[in-house]
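[stage:ingest] chain + small molecule (S-adenosyl-L-homocysteine)
[stage:ingest] validated
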Amino acid sequence: MRLTRLYVAAPLASGGRLELPADAATHVARVLRAREGDPVVLFNGDGHEFESRIESVHGLRVAVAIGAARAVTRESPVALTLLQCLPRGDRMDWIVQKATELGIARIVPLVSRRSVVKISAAQTESKTAHWRAIAVAACEQSGRNRVPTIDTPRGLDEHLGGIGSAGTRLVFDPDVAPDPEEAAPTAAAAPVALDFAIGPEGGFEPQELDGLRIAGFRGVRLGPRILRTETAAIAALVWLQTRFGDLRGARPAARDGSR
Ligand code: SAH
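[stage:predict] done
[stage:export] tokens:
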């Protein structure tokens, strides 16, 4: 089994000792039933991970001896930002989890005209905190030592009004010309950052697509089928990571078993 990885929102230094915050301590003591001496890896999102050991478990109080730091990069060379129009139900949870596993750098939840989901101001904070917790858990699981940024939800127009003119931007749209090669940057000139927008179940309205185009978003079609919004988000991310990011050059392992 893989080592337990724990995110802690605290400064970490080799040789130090840390009393785990209540939620992490509860997880370690109750769910993992960790014992004194068990190995754990701690990370706080600064890009390092610390090989550590459980020093003591007293009820729900868990102390960890922080060991050697390693700077391990499991981040994509291209900082990908997903502009995701809010889907129905708990599909956003799923998108946040999968996108984090696949190396997204930032997710901006958007409310667009055809969004069925409307979230009240009161729900905004709790929803965002919930998605951030999902992203943290996905980093623990997938080995990432940087936690993607999850913005608070905002309107599409508001978001477009706040971005500058620089950067590579794509909007995924089933109705554009079928040749993504034309619209997307070439692999040879891989961007360092790229924003991509995915519409809600009902798609973008024509005026929204105009607004996106004026803001520099080029249209890309992902094949001839209409995908559900959550499928489109993940398919787009895999396509971008394969083209510009760290899925580029993925190939089968050598036959002799070496990696
Ligand atoms: N009812 C809408 C479809 C919306 S699908 C329509 O008929 O236009 C939800 C979102 O997923 C779309 O706004 C788009 O961003 C993305 N999407 C779905 N299928 C796609 C495809 N084949 N190519 C590009 N984007 C797609």
